[in-house]
Amino acid sequence: xxxxxxxxxxxxxxxxxxxxxxxxxxxxxxxxxxxxxxxxxxxxxxxxxxxxxxxxxxxxxxxxxxxxxxxxxxxxxxxxxxxxxxxxxxxxxxxxxxxxxxxxxxxxxxxxxxxxxxxxxxxxxxxxxxxxxxxxxxxxxxxxxxxxxxxxxxxxxxxxxxxxxxxxxxxxxxxxxxxxxxxxxxxxxxxxxxxxxxxxxxxxxxxxxxxxxxxxxxxxxxxxxxxxxxxxxxxxxxxxxxxxxxxxxxxxxxxxxxxxxxxxxxxxxxxxxxxxxxxxxxxxxxxxxxxxxxxxxxxxxxxxxxxxxxxxxxxxxxxxxxxxxxxxxxxxxxxxxxxxxxxxxxxxxxxxxxxxxxxxxxxxxxxxxxxxxxxxxxxxxxxxxxxxxxxxxxxxxxxxxxxxxxxxxxxxxxxxxxxxxxxx
Length: 424
Fold this sequence. Notes:
Layout: H1 3-17, E1 59-72, E2 84-97, E3 104-118, H2 121-124, E4 130-141, E5 145-156, E6 175-188, E7 191-204, E8 213-224, E9 232-245, E10 251-265, E11 268-281, E12 289-301, E13 306-318, E14 325-339, E15 345-359, E16 369-384, E17 390-404, E18 411-423
Antiparallel strand pairs: 1-2, 1-18, 2-3, 3-4, 4-5, 5-6, 6-7, 7-8, 8-9, 9-10, 10-11, 11-12, 12-13, 13-14, 14-15, 15-16, 16-17, 17-18
């Protein structure tokens, strides 16, 4: 499947969500089933409590707008990149069921748009100045079973400055990105049964000369809560999938793993998985591999004002950039927030990823090794203009650096700026 097929599929998925606009639901838009994370509980006592005579509408609508000014020392993220000032205007909406955790059906639709104004044509580097993201979520909560479906589309014109997620390989390459996923969780007397799957496609624009890539996957897991450890869930899972990248042979993988969740208290929780990934590279000359993979995290509220969030991982992926090669990525990301006097919030993050490339086909010589560093700090304060119009003001600094034994893929980048955002 390529761009035209996926555009049609995403359109159908969004259209599927529109009849659900008539469904009654309730308060929080945060209902998601992240892999290996604690589930959002459903309260059976809310079942059937629709408050028909209430004047509160069954959905909530949030309008979003903001503006950012920053200096970007390397707008192309190349070894010889140029610096420039950039203005960003963002706009969008988020509409959906008012309570997405209560028993019953729920829906959500969100859109984010951004317009980028560059200092000159050199720093713009031929990009379309607009970015668009569209997503929909449909779900059904029962007393013991929950199902959620999500579809997302990103018209990626390579302008986005995303401090939370950075693509070390593709960087500022333009593409159309599609993601479809579904997940079911069934509560058991002492644990849960969980099954999910999805499809993602990154379809690069022709001028980028990168490898289009898709992944189809499925995942199943069974968790048990031991009687001697009521705060712990232990489980076994199996993920299987197919990676289909241009200039790389088709790869199928299977990953059996041991998984755990542990909530020490309302302030501290752990989650993780560790297993062995078996990759079968289809076609003549393919090199099959085995690798230890893991993923996990820790959330810790050290005090009422200070919070830490640690993520760590090790995984294997085919390369977007190189033909006949994959890489093993190992890294971590630590984020923290601290509330200061005067309603100010100080945030910081630091991260590192090591990527070791290896040949997935006979005859390919692979030598590339990357070390990617990132860190950042921001100071923000909420702003309240009216009872319904809220926002925040922030100043920030971020640093990215990729070191490699291949000189032309190295780069260094500094970003410093201010942002003012509103939601209504």
